[in-house]
Structures are given as C-alpha cells and as structure tokens.
Amino acid sequence: MITGPTIVRLDELAPTNCPCGTARRAFADRPELPATVHLTEITCDARTHYHRIQTEVYVVLKCAPDAAIELDGVLHPVSPLSAILIPPGVRHRGVGEMSVLIYCAPKFDPADEFFDESV
Question: How does pLDDT run across 76-111, given as a tens digit for each residue?
C-alpha cells in the first residue's frame, strides 16, 4: 500500500553514473512502489544496453538539434517532448546530448542491465 504523496526534486538527488551518462533516480527507496523515475543526462558516448525485465519510457526534455535514440541498431531523430517506449530486450542508447525523464517498470535494478560488447 502506498503510504502517501511524496514530492522529490530530481535535480537535488545525487547523480549516479550509468551507460547513458548520469542518472538521478527517484523512489528506489520506496518498496511499495512498482517503478522508478530517473532524470538522466545523456552524453555523446552513451553505451548500447538492454534490459531483460524492465520496460522504460524515455521522455525527452531537451536535446541537441541532431539528437537521436538508437533502437535495435536503427537511429530515430528525437526532439523535446518525444516519448519513446522501450520494451525488454530492445538494445538502445541515446545519440547526442539530451536530458530525459525515464519511467522504469518494474523498478530499476542494475542487475537487469546488459551489454553485448565487452568493456
């Protein structure tokens, strides 16, 4: 049962390194919630990755004019307020600099983040 409303300032959360750049993850500490929300700053060197369980929705807040999202090897141009549904198994990465809000369900779990190439 959800205990009550909560307001989180995403820009005040500590950033965590991720394959895309840096993420500020909200609600991971709430066991009763089914999902997490991330404010992610994608850098030009985002790594292609995928999830076996998690579904993500990216909402582009701002981006460079040439920004794109790569989904299973195909580049798709994005612009502010683009929403991208990424089901489990889809290899993805941001190309170009952008700020995105990510809804991740079930909750983000680093054990569900996979890479095809060796590091």
Answer: 999 999 999 999 999 999 999 999 999 999 999 999
User: Given the DSSP bridges, would you call strands 36-42 and 98-105 parallel, antiparallel or unpaired?
Assistant: antiparallel
- Which sequence spans correspond to the domains of the chain? 16-110
**Per-residue pLDDT averaged across 9-22, rounded?**
94
Q: Cα separation of 74 and 31, whole Å?
A: 36
Q: How far apart are CA 105 and CA 32, in angstroms?
A: 13
What is the CATH architecture of 16-110?
Sandwich (2.60)
Question: What is the three-state SS of 46-113?
Answer: CCCEECCCCEEEEEEEEECCCCEEEECCEEEECCCCCEEEECCCCCEEEECCEEEEEEEECCCCHHHC
pTM over 0.85: yes
